[in-house]
Amino acid sequence: MTSLQVIQLGLQPYERIFRAMQRFNDVRDSNSLDQVWLVQHQPVFTQGMAGKAEHILMPGSIPVVQVDRGGQVTYHGPGQIVAYPLIDIRRRGLGVRQLVSAIEASIIGVLAGLGINAYARPDAPGVYVDIDGVTGAKIASLGIRIRKGCSYHGLAFNVDMDLSPFQRINPCGYQGLQMTQLRNILPLEALPGFSETEELLLDSLAAHLGYPDWQYNNNETPHWEQCDE
After folding, report:
1. Position 226 pLDDT exceeds 50
2. Which residues participate in catalysis according to the annotation?
3. 80-86/35-41 β-pairing
4. Any idea which fold 4-226 has?
5. How much is the pTM?
6. Total Cβ atoms within 10 A of residue 119
C-alpha cells in the first residue's frame, strides 16, 4: 500500500495555497497519489460557504477570503499547524463523515499522547478541551470540501500562536466561543517543538486514514504556475 505523501510548504499567503489546492483537485486522476500539505499561513480570516457576514466583527487590517469549504469564519496565522489532506476518498472507501471523524480522531490522539483529554462534538466539527474552568474551548478547527470524490481544505491545529485575532470574529459562527492552543495547556518544558508536533499529527493522520506510513515528498512543487498572480 502506498505511503501518504507529505509536502511541507512553510509560511505562505492563504490565497496562493487555496488556488493551488483547487488546481490539484482539477487535474488529479485515479493514479494521483494522496497528499497532505503542511503549511502555516500569514494572518487571514477565511469565510466558508455557509458563512454569515455578521460573524466577522472587526477584521481590521487582516484580509477576509471567501472560500469553497464548509463552515463559517475562522482565523489562520503563524504558529498554527494547517494540514490539507488531498485524499481520493472514493478510492479509500471513505464517506465524508468518516473522513471528518478520522481527522478529529487524529488530533484527539495527538493530544491524548501529550496527556490532554480532548473530544469532538457531533453538532460542531473540530476538537475541544476543557481548560481553566471553560468547557469546550476549541483547539482545532475543521473545514472540508469534496469535489470529484476527492477532498481538499482540512484542519487548523492551534499550537503556539497569537490568539487575539479570534476576538475579531465569532469563531466558526459561535458567539463567545473560546479558542485555546497547546502552549496554553502544557507547561513550557512539556511543550513539543513545532516540527515535532507536526510529525506527531502526521503519524496520527496516517494511522487513522489507513495508510501504512507517511513520507516527505518536498521535491514536488504544487501547481503554483497556474495559481500565482
Report:
1. no
2. 172
3. antiparallel
4. BirA Bifunctional Protein; domain 2 (3.30.930)
5. 0.95
6. 12
